[in-house]
């Protein structure tokens, strides 16, 4: 199956065209991963067009889409989700959401299985998004958002041997875990994390963003007076 | 033009709290025909905050986008293969909100293999009038009055450059309506409530100031912040004196001050520029007193007034589709695939390169 992968939940804009077979797993035909936290809206569609062209395919050849659902900074996250949703609608193809840390974990376990993992990405405001995986690669906690120090406290009671994701590098001193690649989700990681659903042509789960935080908004207080008295 | 007759344009609008998707068809005679105008609004989610909360609006746009496009295409009776171009509001507006629409429009246009037009929200407010009143016969003035804008524009043709003659130097007209409504204990958004309550009041009861109407003030700019403060002072003084506030009179007198200035400056501009068509657009164009006074003053001055029906005046996708259709008809080059959402897009930039 030909799968288009998209993720904008981290500073990277991840796009790729991936061949997915039950036996061989995901194989990347073309990919663009650009790290630029401020240009998700500008970069995403051009990258989609580039990977499709580079693979010598047409968008209409795509059998399914996979999209990272976060957690991630809201504005960028929405670019990927709305793009994937609109492409899915326009092409009449299913769109499968995956939790973004699952895509990073997929890559880690594919290269080096067998050890517990923490995936950490940057949530800005001095916080991180994180998710924890057991030695089989199954997610056992998270995704969640927290201060790095709080996360470090929480880890005291858990078995974790390594960490991945750009947030793991940023806060390596606080977390005290060896950091392994990758820093960002890859197209193959995204498709791999959704492989079962994609291959079985299951009805996709709703494409719901993992915001994990409420919008900043305050209800107004009493009216301000304008007259001096 | 002939090759484009029958062309269908889909328009997407997400600059504020309305997710709008419109579908129009370009006819051989140059008329642009409205096929669908679907709007999903998050206004109720903002009401308790007394104003639009950008993040709440952006979240609502993401949820509403595909369902609203689906609905609009169903209502219009068009299939994906019928769509010839996608237009989207690229600015001005709320950054995060705009971005949802721009990203979606790029995806649809890319998937369907059709051109993308990232357009100016203000020009779209002007272009929407052609859906109701047909092509513009010549140069026109456009008064755009909404919650975010109050601008006086000179438009030679819809696909061509826009000349901004004036604009508010502080609050937008709709913003003034909303703030004064809050002062009077009326719900958000307050414009329609002031309009309703004012019908029972006396517009001459209180002489509120007319902003920027002195001999040395800029002739075509507006200011509503001083007016809003004057209303607040008046209400506070009444409360302090233990008098009950005559809400209808305050609303009517405030509304009169806004409408008087808007129409007087606009008609003067039309006279001085020798333009004899006026379009009024934006949410405040729904105001009954503004419509009435504009009709009177335009009739006296020999100006043909065009005000689209209220549904087309507030933010919607049909206006974006209409502008897209005019750009397509004029052979304007499509926008590139890497255009940003530009919250401060200048009114002179009708379509992003
Ligand atoms: N009858 C009315 N009288 C006065 N003001 C009105 C009336 N109806 C609506 N309004 C005002 O119009 C504004 C809404 O306009 P619109 O729907 O164009 O949205 P907006 O987000 O303000 O638009 P824009 O993004 O173009 O600035 C609000 O401020 C509202 O109070």
From TrEMBL, chain A:
<dbReference type="Pfam" id="PF00814">
    <property type="entry name" value="TsaD"/>
</dbReference>
<protein>
    <submittedName>
        <fullName>tRNA threonylcarbamoyl adenosine modification protein YeaZ</fullName>
    </submittedName>
</protein>
<dbReference type="InterPro" id="IPR000905">
    <property type="entry name" value="Gcp-like_dom"/>
</dbReference>
<feature type="domain" description="Gcp-like">
    <location>
        <begin position="36"/>
        <end position="167"/>
    </location>
</feature>
<dbReference type="InterPro" id="IPR022496">
    <property type="entry name" value="T6A_TsaB"/>
</dbReference>
<dbReference type="InterPro" id="IPR043129">
    <property type="entry name" value="ATPase_NBD"/>
</dbReference>
TrEMBL record, chain B:
<feature type="binding site">
    <location>
        <position position="178"/>
    </location>
    <ligand>
        <name>substrate</name>
    </ligand>
</feature>
<feature type="binding site">
    <location>
        <position position="287"/>
    </location>
    <ligand>
        <name>substrate</name>
    </ligand>
</feature>
<keyword id="KW-0963">Cytoplasm</keyword>
<feature type="domain" description="Gcp-like">
    <location>
        <begin position="33"/>
        <end position="321"/>
    </location>
</feature>
<protein>
    <recommendedName>
        <fullName>tRNA N6-adenosine threonylcarbamoyltransferase</fullName>
        <ecNumber>2.3.1.234</ecNumber>
    </recommendedName>
</protein>
<feature type="binding site">
    <location>
        <position position="315"/>
    </location>
    <ligand>
        <name>Fe cation</name>
    </ligand>
</feature>
<dbReference type="InterPro" id="IPR017860">
    <property type="entry name" value="Peptidase_M22_CS"/>
</dbReference>
<comment type="function">
    <text>Required for the formation of a threonylcarbamoyl group on adenosine at position 37 (t(6)A37) in tRNAs that read codons beginning with adenine. Is involved in the transfer of the threonylcarbamoyl moiety of threonylcarbamoyl-AMP (TC-AMP) to the N6 group of A37, together with TsaE and TsaB. TsaD likely plays a direct catalytic role in this reaction.</text>
</comment>
<keyword id="KW-0808">Transferase</keyword>
<keyword id="KW-0012">Acyltransferase</keyword>
<dbReference type="InterPro" id="IPR043129">
    <property type="entry name" value="ATPase_NBD"/>
</dbReference>
<feature type="binding site">
    <location>
        <position position="121"/>
    </location>
    <ligand>
        <name>Fe cation</name>
    </ligand>
</feature>
<feature type="binding site">
    <location>
        <position position="125"/>
    </location>
    <ligand>
        <name>Fe cation</name>
    </ligand>
</feature>
<comment type="similarity">
    <text>Belongs to the KAE1 / TsaD family.</text>
</comment>
<feature type="binding site">
    <location>
        <position position="191"/>
    </location>
    <ligand>
        <name>substrate</name>
    </ligand>
</feature>
<keyword id="KW-0819">tRNA processing</keyword>
<feature type="binding site">
    <location>
        <position position="195"/>
    </location>
    <ligand>
        <name>substrate</name>
    </ligand>
</feature>
<keyword id="KW-0479">Metal-binding</keyword>
<dbReference type="Pfam" id="PF00814">
    <property type="entry name" value="TsaD"/>
</dbReference>
<dbReference type="InterPro" id="IPR022450">
    <property type="entry name" value="TsaD"/>
</dbReference>
<keyword id="KW-0408">Iron</keyword>
<feature type="binding site">
    <location>
        <begin position="144"/>
        <end position="148"/>
    </location>
    <ligand>
        <name>substrate</name>
    </ligand>
</feature>
